[in-house]
């Protein structure tokens, strides 16, 4: 049991990181980005390619993260330019269409083949009750926690953070105050794209996976972000870790092994039903 | 002329394709069956995403579920007759659709996209784990009259026609028109007396049933299927195809089905990757979202009536005014409010001890911004929680907005919420909860100043839409109609013409009217009684002219001039009221 939880938490760290990427994009730009894992996968595969060309690992990782950031910014600029005033729904639907395009793009470039991704830090950092905890697990979980804390702090305590808040809550008013909301939006899009590369890399480094399989990690990421209601960074991390651990426990049982990917869906249902228990009339509708 | 010749081109083109398919090899017919199948699924996408504006990313899962059930029945040696088995399978898909819509009923529809994406992968996981039953001897057979490939293709086409036809029929009825209404405004849908929940579940169920039909056809086409016949990512692609082409029109669905088979076929014959097709659909969908126009909207634009040629007729209205019930007792109260208190957090927005509206009365509700007028309307129509009691025609009103609307308490909104994609006739019939007779329609049309019931709401000016919303509120002849600033945005001349009609409205429609308006001139010329609110309390009531001259009301509107301190005015928040109250000299300006 403990063993499953420990391995599950490592995957959960990746869900948490992807969930964080979704949450900050939603907070800053009012968009649920369904293409997030697609962006992360392209970045990761770019990194794998760079690695195979003999580039040092650190440079390859940097390149992958840069590709993710660039793709994120590209998607962000399309949304800002063409859908600046559109509703959450429309902007999110656009990311679904972009997701379909990315899937096709991935199919064209990598032709459905499984791609091996360079893995690092797999040696155990320490042991919990006899179960080795790899260094990468330690890194990913602490990264998610630190990022959640850091971003929360930055949002409420720095000028840039406050401007971001202003942009996210009343983008027109923020512009009237002289804040360039497009630029702030783009920064968030780029950062979330970069996050997603790190998250997908850590998932992919465990076993070679093909493109579309990796893009579907958007589902547990959405579940994690839902735990934080697309707003609370801390709860998003908790949600990601919880889903990772639960999924691992379910996968460890003989009977329900095959249903482990159902776990995030059960989460969706529980959270949505709970969060709308006394929903009132929303002015915008 | 242009439209007719274009339609001829399409008919000829379709006929040519059909001839090529039916006269060609079995492979042609196989491709065409797949196209028709996709077209049927796309019809469902059109309902859910196009009409109702909800994002569903699991339409193929519904098809998978019905396919699975049909195969199970076949494997068990057909315990029931095949039509019954198919009905059960399709109904199961519909039931699943209804269940899936539940978690997202009261939330933003983007959550529905999240749920359905999760469901798509879940269903695929479960069905892959259960594995579709192995087909050894019991294959699913085609119906007797459609054994051959040609016959089965014809059968599929007929089914497509039936589904498309019933959807077109539904869209002309309240059942389907409400999908558009929910998409445009949930509040307005409830204000017309319809349950938003029910409409959404209905749309989802219909779309799932349609997918279920397609699922059965997939199985019959080849005799069996497995979970790989319904990949969850295909649902996303179909969603993109639907958005790109505009499948809320049957033509768009047929085009989409054809393209989703023809393009991959073209690519594979050239040895090119099929991914180019999905790339095209993804980019096309983005383009359609950016321009707000799908392909079908451009190829088959919706016919529009020519407004300039239409003249409304005053006859029906004049008849109604002369025939109206005279001598009905007007003293009995129809709406009685007791101790209505509305709080937003710690702020008491409204604290109303007692208010009565008489049958067929015309009461003006006056007050500055923040006086609690709209809070009062929102509370008693069920949109904002409150304490206290509301009695309408002797019965206590409780429950959600739609129940209050049906009971006979109607309202309009400060920002008009008339569904633009409906025709005026559809909009008024939805409001009336029945098919309106021609002379009833004529009365409402003249009242709102709309030239014909056949124009689309989106063809009307903003000012006319406001009045159409008011006419809609009267359409069911409710006990009481609450009008929230109906003449905001109208010119003075338009407002005065409307004032004259509104004075007759209570006796024509047998409804009392409560009018919220900043335009004091309008209130004076329409209302027989007026109530003044300030900071949530009644500060005076009576005949409008006298009330407006009373010191308390003047003080509330103009500020305590005797205090002599300009800062006091600002602190009390009354400083800005002069202009908005319409008491300033420039009436025109205050209205714009």
Q: What is the β-strand count of chain B? A: 10
Low-confidence stretches of chain B: 563-592
SS-based class of chain B = alpha/beta
Given the structure, what is the number of helices of chain B?
26
* Span of the ends, CA to CA of chain A: 47 Å
Provide structural commentary:
The complex is a heterodimer of chains A (285) and B (592). Chain A has 285 residues and is mainly alpha-helical. Helix content of chain A is 73%, strand content 3%. In chain A, α2 packs across α8 (181-204). Chain A is globular, with a radius of gyration of 19 Å. The relative contact order of chain A is 0.21. By secondary structure, chain B is of the alpha/beta class. Chain B has 26 helices and ten strands. Chain B has helices at residues 2-23, 26-51, 59-75, 82-101, 109-130, 149-172, 174-184, 186-191, 196-222, 232-245, 250-269, 275-291, 295-299, 315-323, 373-380, 401-407, 424-432, 438-448, 462-475, 492-509, 520-526, 544-549, 551-558, 566-571, 577-580, 587-591; strands spanning 333-344, 347-358, 362-366, 387-392, 395-396, 409-411, 480-484, 512-516, 529-534, 537-542. A six-stranded mixed sheet of chain B has the order 6-7-8-3-9-10, with helices on both faces. In chain B, strands 2-1-4-5 form a four-stranded antiparallel sheet, with helices on one face. In chain B, α2 runs antiparallel to α9. At the A-B interface, α3, α4, α10 and α12 of A face α5, α8, α10 and α12 of B.
Keywords:
heterodimer; A: 285 residues; mainly alpha; 12 helices; 73% helix; B: 592 residues; alpha/beta; six-stranded mixed beta sheet; 10 strands; disordered C terminus
């Amino acid at each position: 049991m403990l063993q499953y939880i420990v391995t599950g938490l490592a995957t959960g760290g990746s869900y948490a990181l992807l969930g964080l990427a979704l949450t900050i994009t939603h907070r800053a730009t009012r968009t649920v980005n369904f293409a997030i894992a697609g962006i992360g996968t392209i970045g990761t595969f770019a990194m794998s390619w760079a690695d195979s060309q003999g580039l040092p690992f650190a440079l390859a990782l940097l390149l992958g993260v840069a590709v993710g950031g660039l793709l994120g910014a590209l998607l962000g600029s399309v949304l800002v330019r063409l859908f600046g005033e559109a509703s959450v729904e429309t902007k999110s639907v656009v990311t679904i269409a972009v997701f379909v395009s990315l899937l096709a793009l991935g199919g064209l470039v990598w032709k459905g083949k499984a791609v091996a991704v360079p893995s690092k830090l797999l040696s155990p950092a320490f042991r919990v009750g006899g179960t080795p905890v790899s260094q990468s697990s330690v890194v990913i979980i602490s990264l998610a926690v630190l990022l959640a804390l850091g971003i929360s702090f930055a949002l409420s305590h720095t000028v840039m953070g406050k401007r971001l808040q202003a942009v996210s809550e009343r983008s027109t008013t923020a512009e009237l105050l002289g804040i360039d909301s497009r630029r702030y939006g783009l920064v968030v899009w780029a950062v979330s794209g970069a996050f997603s590369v790190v998250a997908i890399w850590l998932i992919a480094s465990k076993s070679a996976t093909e493109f579309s399989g990796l893009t579907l990690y958007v589902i547990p990421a959405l579940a994690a972000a839902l735990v934080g209601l697309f707003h609370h960074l801390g709860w998003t991390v908790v949600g990601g870790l919880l889903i990772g651990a639960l999924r691992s426990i379910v996968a460890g049982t003989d009977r329900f092994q095959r249903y482990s990917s159902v776990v995030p869906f059960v989460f969706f249902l529980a959270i949505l039903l709970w969060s709308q228990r006394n929903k009132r009339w929303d002015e915008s509708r | 002329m242009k439209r007719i010749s274009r339609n001829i081109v399409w008919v000829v083109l379709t006929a040519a394709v059909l001839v090529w398919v039916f006269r060609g090899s079995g492979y042609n017919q196989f491709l065409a069956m797949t196209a028709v199948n996709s077209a049927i699924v796309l019809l469902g996408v059109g309902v859910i995403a196009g009409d109702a504006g909800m994002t569903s990313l699991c339409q193929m899962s519904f098809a998978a579920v019905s396919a699975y059930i049909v195969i199970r029945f076949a494997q068990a040696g057909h315990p029931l007759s095949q039509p019954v088995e198919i009905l059960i399978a399709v109904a199961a898909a519909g039931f699943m659709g209804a269940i899936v819509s539940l978690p997202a009923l009261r939330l933003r529809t983007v959550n529905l996209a999240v749920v359905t994406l999760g469901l798509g992968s879940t269903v695929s996981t479960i069905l892959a784990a259960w594995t579709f039953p192995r087909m050894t001897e019991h294959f699913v057979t085609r119906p007797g009259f459609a054994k051959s490939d040609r016959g089965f293709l014809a059968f599929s086409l007929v089914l497509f026609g039936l589904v498309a036809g019933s959807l077109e029929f539904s869209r002309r009825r309240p059942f389907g028109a409400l999908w558009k209404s929910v998409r445009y405004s949930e509040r307005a849908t409830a204000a017309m007396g319809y349950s938003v929940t029910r409409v959404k579940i209905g749309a989802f169920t219909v779309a799932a049933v349609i997918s279920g039909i397609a699922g059965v056809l997939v199985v019959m086409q080849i005799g069996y299927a497995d979970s790989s016949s319904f990949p969850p990512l295909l649902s996303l692609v179909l969603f993109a195809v639907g958005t790109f082409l505009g499948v809320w029109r049957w033509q768009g669905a047929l085009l989409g089905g054809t393209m989703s088979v023809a393009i991959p076929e073209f690519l594979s014959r050239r040895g090119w990757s099929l991914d180019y097709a999905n790339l095209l659909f993804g980019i096309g969908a983005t383009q359609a979202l950016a321009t707000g126009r799908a392909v079908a909207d451009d190829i088959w634009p919706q016919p529009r009536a020519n407004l300039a040629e239409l003249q409304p007729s005053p006859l029906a209205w004049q008849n109604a005014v002369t025939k109206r019930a005279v001598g009905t007792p007007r003293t009995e109260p129809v709406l009685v409010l007791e101790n209505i208190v509305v709080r937003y957090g710690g702020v008491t927005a409204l604290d109303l001890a007692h208010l009565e509206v008489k049958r067929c009365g015309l009461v003006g509700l006056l007050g500055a911004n923040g006086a609690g007028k709209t809070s009062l309307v929102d509370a008693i129509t069920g949109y904002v929680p409150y304490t206290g009691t509301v009695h309408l025609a002797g019965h206590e009103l409780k429950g959600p907005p739609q129940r209050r609307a049906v009971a006979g308490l109607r309202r309009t909104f400060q920002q008009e919420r008339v569904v633009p994609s409906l025709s005026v006739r559809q909009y008024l019939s939805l409001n009336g909860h029945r098919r309106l007779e021609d002379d009833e329609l004529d009365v409402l049309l003249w009242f709102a100043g709309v030239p014909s019931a056949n124009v689309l709401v989106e063809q009307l000016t903003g000012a006319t839409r406001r009045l159409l919303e008011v006419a809609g509120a009267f359409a069911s002849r409710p006990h009481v109609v609450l009008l929230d600033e109906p003449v905001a945005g109208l010119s003075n001349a338009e407002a005065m013409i409307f004032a004259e009609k509104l004075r007759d409205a209570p006796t024509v429609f047998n409804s009392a009217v409560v009018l919220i308006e900043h335009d004091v001139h309008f209130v004076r010329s329409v209302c027989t009684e007026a109530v003044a609110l300030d900071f949530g309390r009644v500060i005076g009531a009576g005949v409008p002219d006298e009330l407006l001259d009373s010191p308390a009301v003047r003080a509330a509107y103009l500020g305590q001039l005797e205090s002599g301190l300009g800062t006091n005015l600002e602190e009390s928040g009354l400083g800005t009221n002069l202009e908005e109250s319409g008491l300033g000299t420039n009436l025109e300006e205050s209205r714009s």
